[in-house]
Specification:
CATH architecture: Orthogonal Bundle
CATH class: Mainly Alpha
Order of helices and strands: HHHHHHHHHH
Strand content: under 5%
Distance between the termini: 36 Å
Number of helices: 10
Number of domains: 1
Structural class: mainly alpha
CATH topology: Urease accessory protein UreF
Number of strands: 0
Largest sheet: none
CATH superfamily: Urease accessory protein UreF
Shape: globular
Radius of gyration: 16 Å
Length: about 220
């Protein structure tokens, strides 16, 4: 029961992980499409979960989780994420989000997070968010299944929250989209974990790349 409560704690949008500053490509997509309705948002979130999160972020998360605090192994996974994230704004955003996540956990007394924060500052690790989440969530008592569910939920809710803040959909519409995505997240966590990091979400990559050149931006990426 306590592990479930800890998963809820980590999935809480009020946790100061720094994710509020990132739109995960949504701001760029809204600009490209000149708007986004609830039905389109649902398709977009589902595609991001299937073609990015399930085969890439989830894999990085699980690898970080299974490192058991081994800094050398965590750093190796981190470097692989860096090398395979082609869009600069997504690389930088992932590292910044990871740094905020580690800083928050370090300040509330998580020893591994404090060590990882210092290792990232020294340059030995890069601090990509999915890898850091896996490592830290293992240390706070989540099991692999709860870690995956928490990760999938935070990705979906982050996309939807960004769309709400941009005025693309209303709060109730956003909650309806999120509720519809929950069975998909559960289904994806049951899939076999790929051996390699794989992602094919060109619509998000293109939107994020264009967004980085925008004159006016609400989000960092």
């Amino acid at each position: 029961m306590l592990s479930t409560l800890r998963a809820l704690w980590q999935a809480d949008g009020a946790f100061p992980s720094g994710s509020f500053a990132f739109s995960y490509g949504i701001e760029g997509i809204v600009a490209l499409r000149h708007g986004l309705d609830a039905r389109e948002l649902k398709r977009l979130v589902a595609a991001a979960l299937k073609h990015r999160w399930a085969s890439y972020d989830r894999v990085a998360l699980l690898r970080g989780f299974r490192c058991n605090g081994d800094l050398a192994v965590i750093a190796a996974v981190d470097r692989e994420v860096e090398a395979s994230t082609l869009v600069e704004s997504l690389r930088v955003g992932s590292r910044r989000n990871g740094a905020s996540f580690l800083a928050s956990h370090a300040r509330i007394g998580n020893d591994l997070a404090a060590i990882l924060r210092d290792v990232v500052r020294s340059g030995e690790c890069l601090g990509h968010i999915a890898v850091m989440q896996g490592a830290v969530w293992s240390s706070v008592g989540l099991d692999e299944n709860l870690a995956q569910l928490t990760s999938g939920y935070t990705v979906a809710s982050g996309l939807i929250t960004a769309a709400i803040r941009l005025g693309a959909v209303g709060a109730l519409q956003g909650q309806e989209v999120l509720a519809d995505c929950l069975p998909l997240i559960e289904q994806l966590t049951m899939n076999e974990t790929p051996l390699e990091l794989e992602s094919f979400a060109p619509f998000l990559d293109v939107a994020a790349a264009r967004h980085a050149q925008a004159d006016l931006r609400l989000f960092a990426n």
